[in-house]
Specification:
The chain has 665 residues and is an alpha/beta fold. The chain has 17 helices and 28 strands. The longest helix is centred in the N-terminal third of the chain and has 20 residues.
């Protein structure tokens, strides 16, 4: 442990020095060898598939890979994807059409099971060994008779962690990569947010994915294994019973093995604060090592959306080489995690409750990815990727793609919208206040409400993944949204949009069923379009009679027909108000200023619509419920009802900060 501390301490010094360097402006570094090329054609009609190809790691562990290559003599560039979800579920293969398209254009695809998963040897320690193994796979590829020695990585979600860590390892033959929908900071963007545990996503990830997937490896005895699977199948049938049990750290479906001796969730909840456990696993700890161009592909409603933007931003500033610093590409679409067009998935025209139209449905995502790889691995600049277009974003309701010089947009006007007591007349929530650009000038009573952890406000949409379906009171219930069983392949179901998924949806969903249990503040009807693109924050002046509690803030678009579509949301656990490393309880009754990060979006509010802010103290089952007691919420077995107060007077001007883009004259 001492050596880890010394290494991380040295790393902190290095990062401090690198971060202090002036930000690099765009240059024309690009690929000086690239020449204009025509639109791609089918060069190879057939491809060869080699299954379970062994790749030996430096410690002797054997990983298994599937190789897809053109059925022709010659040497080709290679795209690599490592996955824990079985090689046949790899993100680059999700839509089933990428293999024939990529091989027809002269690429080899190598998809491998990461260490300890499926057919690969070893034991999996999530986020560990990815750099060494990724390095060894790339260098193995470079020695193969079908390889020309030019390699790229491609993958999203956990596959994106594999790809990003492979980039950080700097294998000599790796020349570029596309990293999609993954985290940069594991503590703040994968496992916790604002100090609150991402229970909805992570309970599904363990109980409906790893528990089933690892059973054959962890329980050799067939009878014991079947008994374990049978017991696990009870989870979707009685989600409420399992999810409401206390303490959360003992969540039964997360226990793997015949005696429950393997438990990822318990491991995560044994590290409730930021620190060395997370730092050594964080990609962002190593961005000063990056030497190559990377495309960062994300979605505004992706559960890891902030990580995509952070990785792009920080590698520009901290990357080791000018080639890396000047050739990071950011591509932010409208997607949630499951709707990202992993391969050649076209025809998606709707995200959540929002219609996006043909500009999204007709977009050739696979063509863009292959054009990107052509530029860096074949020295060809084809239609579909322009190296000068460093930032490309989607704007909701304007329903268009935009190429912008940088991000955030230079013309952004960060505008405060203040909570005010005047009724808006548009909401049936617990409290109907107004939202105004005018700061409060007169004294006003605080708005009060009660937060009962046994009656949480339900999750509906937003940047989430895998939340179990819930009834109107917020009680988890697998029957209300789908019937996917534990025997089903959860990852494949998500990638293919299986309607049996027991979720309440992700992305821009209507909040009205949940909003009735919140307090709201709404603008007057807008008379002209208002574009908002960038980082969204809230500053709440609030008090509670508890020693800890949560503050949840949502910004939504209120449509003329009465829907309230979530645009962005965030949470702040009170004990983490000042630090993620050193939490401290609050003094009951004392007013604190809470900074709530709502992450980012690009959204145009239309004439006739309103902007609404909703405030509450829970978002369940997405986040672990705060029990309002001194013990950490994930460890607590007792709870209390908290009396909450939100202030909106001149000394305590609670507000949200929206990144407004002025209309061009």
């Amino acid at each position: 442990m001492a050596s880890v501390r010394r290494r991380l301490a040295g790393l902190a010094v290095t990062l401090a020095v690198v971060t202090a360097m002036p930000a690099q402006g765009w240059s024309d570094v690009g690929n000086p060898k690239a020449k204009p090329g025509p639109a791609p054609t089918i060069e190879y009609q057939e491809y060869v598939t080699e299954l379970d190809v062994p790749i030996k790691m430096r410690d002797g562990t054997i990983l298994k890979a599937d190789v897809y290559r053109p059925k022709a003599a010659g040497k080709f560039p290679t795209l690599v994807d490592g996955t824990p979800y079985s090689k046949t579920n790899a993100m680059m293969l999700a839509a089933g059409t990428f293999v024939p398209r990529a091989t027809s254009q002269g690429y080899v695809l190598v998809v491998y099971d990461v260490r300890g998963q499926n057919k690969s040897e070893g034991s999996i320690d999530l986020h560990v060994n990815l750099q060494n193994d990724g390095y060894d796979v790339v260098e193995w590829v470079a020695t193969q008779p079908w390889s020309n020695g030019r390699v790229g990585v491609d993958g999203g979600s956990y596959d994106g962690q594999v790809g990003l860590n492979t980039i950080l390892a700097n294998p000599p033959h790796l020349q570029t990569g596309i990293v999609a929908v993954t985290a940069s900071d594991l503590y703040r963007q994968w496992y916790f947010r604002g100090g609150a545990f991402e229970f909805g996503a992570l309970s599904g990830w363990t109980a409906l994915n790893f528990s089933r997937r690892l059973a054959p490896r962890l329980i050799p005895d067939e009878k014991a294994r079947q008994e374990y699977i049978d017991n696990l199948a009870l989870y979707p049938a009685d989600a409420a019973g399992y999810m409401n049990a206390l303490p959360l750290i003992d969540f039964e479906p997360a226990k793997m093995g015949d005696k429950g001796q393997y438990n990822y969730l318990k491991d995560w909840l044994s590290h409730l604060t930021d620190g060395e456990y997370w730092w050594k696993r964080n990609p962002k700890s190593y961005y000063h090592e990056v030497t190559i161009p990377v495309m960062h592909l994300g979605g505004w409603y992706d559960i890891f959306g902030a990580g995509t933007i952070e990785a792009w931003d920080r590698i520009q500033k901290e990357g080791r080489t000018a080639l890396a610093r000047d050739n990071q590409t950011l591509f932010m679409g409208p997607w949630d995690h499951a709707e990202v067009p992993w391969a050649n998935k076209t025809g998606v025209h709707r995200i959540g409750a929002v219609e996006c139209g043909p500009a999204l449905a007709d977009y050739d995502h696979a063509g863009m990815r292959l054009a990107y790889f052509d530029y860096w691995l074949k020295d060809l600049q084809r239609p579909g990727f322009d190296p000068d277009e460093r930032v490309r974003i989607w704007t909701f309701n304007a329903n268009k793609w935009s190429t912008v010089p940088t991000y955030p947009l230079p013309e952004t006007k960060y505008t405060k919208f203040y909570l005010a007591p005047e009724k808006s007349g548009s909401s049936k929530a617990l409290y109907d206040g107004s939202l105004s650009e005018k700061a409060p000038a007169e004294a006003a009573r605080p708005v009060t409400y009660k937060y009962d952890p046994t009656k949480p406000v339900a999750t509906r949409g937003g940047n989430n993944l895998f939340p179990m379906a819930i009834d109107p009171t917020g009680t988890p219930s697998a029957g209300t949204g789908g019937s996917l069983t534990v025997d089903s392949d959860l990852i494949k179901a998500v990638l293919q949009g299986d309607e049996r998924l027991p979720t309440t949806g992700t992305g821009p969903e209507d909040q009205i069923p949940a909003e009735v249990n919140t307090i709201t503040f709404t603008t007057p009807v807008l008379g002209a379009p208002m574009e908002m693109t960038g980082h969204i924050r809230a500053v709440l002046y609030a008090a509670s009679d508890a020693v800890d509690t949560d503050w949840v803030v949502r910004v939504s678009d209120v449509t003329p027909d009465g829907k309230s579509i979530v645009v962005a949301d965030g949470i702040r656990r009170a004990r983490f108000r000042d630090s993620d490393l050193h939490p401290s309880l609050i003094e009951p009754g004392k007013i604190y200023a809470y900074d709530v990060d709502l992450w980012q979006n690009s959204w145009e509010f239309q004439p006739g619509h309103r902007i609404r802010v909703a405030i509450t103290s829970s978002n369940w089952p997405r986040y672990s419920r705060n029990m309002n007691v001194a013990e950490f919420p994930e460890l607590a077995t007792t709870w209390k009802v908290a009396n909450q107060s939100i202030y909106m007077d001149p000394e305590h001007p609670s507000h949200v900060i929206l990144p407004i883009i002025p209309k061009k004259k």
